[in-house]
Write a structure and sequence with these properties.
This protein is of the alpha/beta class and 233 residues long. 39% of the residues lie in helices and 15% in strands. The strands form 2 sheets. It has a 4-stranded parallel sheet, sandwiched between helices. Strand 5, helix 9 and strand 6 form a beta-alpha-beta unit.
Length: 233
């Protein structure tokens, strides 16, 4: 009773805020308010057969994937863009961890945890990592690892070049920008493993395609991908 009263008092002074809309959370809510949980644009791709998954179709003929997954649809100027902005540019790594936990629990509920041996985030270049202080994809990977009960490692892949931003590039330019910048840090982590590669947002898929190709070449048994959000083409 006293602990509950103390928590309520602290909440009045330092309210916990929804990660999406920044409104105060009420008792029983964690990370996201009930309104945002209901209104976020979920993809539900994990509930579709592989041949009906529009995200998976983007990689047909480019990269053999077991699963192509994304939690949310990217909507410009909406809640999802705000979440990603908080994660990447406002130091809110808890956004990635929380969304990973939520999505991981959903994937586990439909039996997908059994399809993965290892979760690997898309790496940042060391200079960018030092500047930001953390890898947003790794935060998402750690949350997924908790939700799925599957191990994650941020040391399997290494980015060898500090590439320019992908924001204004077309697909061909994005692929050229990342095609040769990833390498395996520790092959022993990869050989024979079913790897889930994760990133924060998917636009053309060039970065995840490049990572997946390197992992398969290094001996991964299978590659799947998952992101917090994906943009419609």
């Amino acid at each position: 009773m006293l602990r509950s009263l103390a928590a309520d008092f602290i909440g009045l002074i330092f309210p916990r805020l929804c990660l999406a809309c920044r409104e105060p959370l009420v008792t029983g809510e964690t990370h996201l308010c009930t309104g945002c949980r209901a209104e976020l644009p979920y993809t539900d791709y994990h509930r579709l057969p592989p041949d009906q998954n529009p995200l998976g179709r983007r990689f047909w003929g480019k990269l053999p994937l077991r699963h192509a997954l994304s939690y949310l649809r990217f909507v410009r100027h909406g809640r999802v863009q705000h979440l990603l902005h908080e994660l990447k540019y406002q130091g809110q790594r808890d956004v990635g961890t929380a969304l990973g936990q939520l999505y991981g629990a959903e994937l586990r509920a439909v039996g997908l945890a059994a399809d993965f041996d290892l979760i690997v985030p898309v790496p940042l270049h060391p200079r960018k990592l030092a500047k930001r202080g953390y890898n947003q994809a790794a935060a998402f990977a750690n949350g997924l690892a908790e939700g799925l009960n599957v191990p994650a490692t941020a040391t399997a892949l290494r980015r060898t070049a500090n590439t320019k931003t992908q924001t204004k590039k077309n697909r061909a330019q994005r692929w050229e920008n990342v095609a040769t910048v990833f390498e395996i840090e520790n092959p022993a982590h990869i050989i024979g493993r079913r790897v889930l590669v994760v990133d924060d947002v998917l636009t053309t898929g060039a970065t995840l395609e490049a990572c997946g190709a390197v992992l398969l070449a290094a001996g991964a048994a299978e590659v799947s991908i998952a992101t917090i959000a994906c943009a419609d083409r």
